[in-house]
User: Fold these one by one.
Assistant:
Number 1:
Amino acid sequence: MKKLKSIKGIPLSYIQSILKIDTSSPSGLSWLPREDVQFKYDNKNAGCKHADQRKYQSWDVSITHNNKKYNIKCSRVILLLHNGYLTKNKEVDHKDGNSLNNKVNNLRESTLAQNKHNRKISKNNTSGHKGVYWNKASGKWMVRINANGKSYYFGTYVNKEDAIKVAIAARKKLHGEFGRDE
C-alpha cells in the first residue's frame, strides 16, 4: 500500500510546523507558535466538535494551505503526525468506538470493512447482541455475521445464550482485533 506524507495535498512538513499532538487538548491537537505570522491561537487547543447528519461526532480542524481552507478530522492529523504517514485508501478507526477520543493509543488505520466491524451495536437490534437474530419461521435464534462484503451463516439455536456464544466466537474469527461484541 502506498504511504502518504500528506492530507488533502497538505504536506506533513507543513502540518508539523503548525500543529502538535497534545494529550491535554480535547481534540488531541494544539497549535504551534508561528514565527512567520502573528497567530492568535499559539499554544491553544486546535479543532472543534463536528456532527454530521447522522449525528456522528468528531473533532475537526481547519487548516489553510496555499490560500485554501481545508476541514480535516483531527484523528487523521494525529495519526499522520504520530506515524509520519497515512496509508492510501485506509481509514482511521477509534479502537474504543468513541469518535471523540483521539488519544494516539486509541487510533489505528483500518479498511472500511474493519472500521464497520468495530461499530457499536445498532439501535434497531432486538436481541441485544450483534449477529444474533430471532427467526420467526423456525422459532429459534439465528447467527449471521457479515465480514468483508460477505454474509456468513452459523446456524439456529433454541437457547439465545448458545447463539450469543457462537456469534462471539465467529466475530473473533472473522473480524480479528476489529471485532466488537457490544
Number 2:
Amino acid sequence: MERSIIHERASFLRDFVFAADDGIITTFVVVAGSFGAGLAPSVVLTLGFANLLADGFSMATGIYLGAKSEVEYEKSKNDPHWESDSPVKQGLITFVSFDIAGVLPLLPFLFAIRAGFSASAALVGISLFGLGVVKGIYTKKSPVKSGLETFLIGGIAAALAYAVGFLVDNFVV
C-alpha cells in the first residue's frame, strides 16, 4: 500500500480514536462531576449536551486548524513527494466521532433510567473498552490489552471528576 495512503488512514484512525475517546470521557466527567455534586438529572443533561456540542465543535476546529497548519508548513518546504491529508475531512471525523461517542454517557439520563449514573458508568466502561478493542484490531496489537488501557485511562478521569464534584459540593459550596 502506498505510504501516503497508509499515512492518511493512520491520521483518520488517530482522529477517530482521539475524538471518540475524548467524547466519551469528557461527557462522562460532566455526568460524574454533576452526580458527585448531587445535581438533578435535568442539569446533567443540560451540561452534558452543552459540553457535547461545544467541545465537539472546538475539537473539530482545533484539528482542522492544526492539520491546515501542518499542510501549510509542509507546502512551504517545497517537498515534491509530499501529499497532504484533508484538514476538512479530519475536522469532520473529529466532530462526528466526538458527538456520536459522547452522547453515550447521556443516554440513561435522556431515557430517564432510574439508576442513571450507574447505567451511564456501565455504558461508558463498555464503550471505552470497545473503542480500545477496535484500536487494537486496527493497529494489530492485543485487542484486550488495548481495551483495558483505554478503559483504565477513562476510569481515572471519571473518578477524578466525581471526586471533584463531591468535594466541591460537600466542602466548598
